[in-house]
Each structure stands twice: as C-alpha cells, then as structure tokens.
Amino acid sequence: MACDVCGDMEDGYVVLIEGARMNTCQECASLGRIISTPVRYSPAARVKTTKQELEMVENFGEEIQKGMKRTGLPVAVLAERINEKVSFLERVVNQKTLPGEHLARKLEHELGIKLLVPASSGEEKKPSGGGGKEMTLGDVLELQKKKKGDK
Ligand SMILES: [Zn+2]
To answer: Residue 95 C-alpha to ligand 1 middle, in angstroms?
Structure first.
C-alpha cells in the first residue's frame, strides 16, 4: 500500500481528487477532499488508560452511614435519590455489596462523603488496630482528639 499520487509508503488517507477516490499520504491528502483519515490514533481506545485507577475506601459502609446521619437521610429516601432499590442500598451499607463507581459517585454527591480514592495512594487508609474491629463514633472522636493533641 502506497500513496496513489506520489508513491510514498505512508498512506492511510482516502481523498477525492477530481472525482476519483485515492489512497494518499498526508501531504497529498491536501490536494483533494479528505473522505477519511488514518485510524491509527483512535482516541476512544485510550480513554480508559489515561484516567487514574480508583478504589473504594475500606469502610465504605461506615462512611455511607456517617453521611446518612449527617444529612439526616433515611435509607429509603437516599435510595430513591440515587435510583437504587432500598434492599440493594442496605447491602452496600452493610458492605455485602461493593457499589460500582457510578453509584459511589452518586453517594459521594448526595452525602458529601469520600468513597473513591486513588488506588496508588495508601493515605486514606486508616490504621485499623485490631483487624475486623468496627469503629464506633466514639472511637472516631477519640481518634480525632488524639490527632489534635499531637500537633
Ligand atoms: Zn503522496
């Protein structure tokens, strides 16, 4: 495959030159009306890789519960707002189901919480002392007090 006009090995453009369909190189493409350009650079194929990977925070159920408490939204109302079934939302809150990114975004928006963090940074992960132990609101407040005391 080569340019129909100049014989250059680089082609990929399909142009209309004086009524004739020609395969041409980039330079010769300007001689006619371009019908199609090379498909080597497909923007659609790259979209996924350019975005940073995100991961769900470990205690997303707790975060959602905290958000609901703060906003005063009962599960039923929240479920309606984000267009999900109450039973499904309850499963998410109980961490039996991992919400998808789209759902997580909606929850973040409705509750003003942070559920998705960049996968590379481990900063968001809280030091969980005795693996599996659930933190109560009291524990959280205690932790915040300690943090303030350190500085
Ligand atoms: Zn050419």
So the answer is: 61
Rounded to the nearest angstrom, the distance between the alpha carbon of 37 and the centre of ligand 1 is 14
| E-assigned strand segments in 66-135 | 116-118
Other C-beta atoms closer than 10 Å to the C-beta of 5 total 18
Span from the CA of 21 to the centroid of ligand 1 (angstroms): 14
> Is there a single domain that holds both residue 84 and residue 112?
yes
**Residue 146 within any structural domain of the chain:** no
Domain count, the chain: 2
21 shares a domain with 70: no
Tens of pLDDT, residues 79-122? 999 999 999 999 999 999 999 889 999 999 999 999 998 876 44
For residue 17, the CA-to-ligand 1 centroid distance in Å is: 12
pLDDT in tens, 118-140: 876 444 455 555 455 566 777 77
Domain interval for residue 4: 1-39
